[in-house]
Structures are given as structure tokens and as C-alpha cells.
Amino acid sequence: MTPLAEKTYILLKTVPKGRITTYKALADALGTKAYRAIGQIMRNNPYSFEEYLDLKQRVPCHRVVASDGTIGGFKGEKTGETIRRKIALLRKEGVIIRNNRVVDFKKMEYVFDKVHKRAL
DNA sequence: TATTTGACCAAGA
DNA sequence: ATCTTGGCCAAAT
Questions:
Q1: DSSP H or E segment with residue A41
Q2: Of the residues A29, A61, A66, A90, which is catalytic?
């Protein structure tokens, strides 16, 4: 677990069900420009939301989408059945998706506040 | 130490 | 609405 990864997971866990954030928003909130690294960190997520059972620890990496509202990747892949599972998870939480894009994406985005940043 | 690799991004055409 | 392109920087190799 790298330092940035640890902070990223802590922050991401504050995003509630039915809302989303972006790779860039996470990077910005953490004071780094390494938004590409955030993707790497999601890929290495040891607490998969689907597979990990401990509610307190699991990291909702399916709630992270690209800055233009497109879905982004999941489990190391960017297309195919894996992405359909990410979409299914989001839909189950109430996020509307059409043509691989979050509808009303700006309104669905969760904005990190001072309290969350302070916890890092 | 040096190089390569991305679940990315913003701006242009 | 797509599509390139150049840039970005932490981590992995």
C-alpha cells in the first residue's frame, strides 16, 4: 500500500451510494496532479466492492468515472463484460447511464468537503 | 538511478 | 459528437 493509495481509498470511501466522483476530482482533493495514478490505484484496489465482504473496508471503485462522464475502466479493463458489471453496480445504486455515459453527471458528482480532507 | 506504463485529461481539428 | 495529440506524475519494472 503506497501513501497516495492509502489516502485515495480513505477519501473514496466517503462517496455515498448513488453518487459518483472522478479520477481527477480525487487527485485534486488530495493535492496531486497524478490523476493517471489514481486509475492505477483503482486497478490495484485490494478491497473490491463486489468481492470484499467487510462493509467498513471495501472501497467503491465503481463510483469513479472519467471527467467527461464516461464510465472509465473496471478491474483492469476498459471494455466488455467487465464494464457491464460496473454499469450494473451503478444502476443498482440509482445512477442513470446511457451510451456508456452518466446522465446528468455533474449533478451526480459528489463534492468532497473539508471534513473529508481533514481526515487524511 | 533510469525508463516505462497507464481504470486519465484538456484542447484542437 | 468523435478523434488525436501532447502532457501529466506516482508506481512498477
A1: helix A35-43
A2: A61
Answer for A32: CB within 7 Å of strand C.
yes
Cell reading at A21: 466522483
CA–C1' gap, A40 and C13, in angstroms? 15
Compute CA A70 distance to the chain's CA centroid, rounded to the nearest angstrom: 12
The structure's pTM equals 0.94
For residue A101, indicate whether it is catalytic: no
pLDDT tens-digit map of A18-72: 999 999 999 999 999 999 999 999 999 878 877 888 888 899 999 999 999 999 9
Which stretches of A56-100 are assigned E, i.e. beta strand? 64-65, 97-98
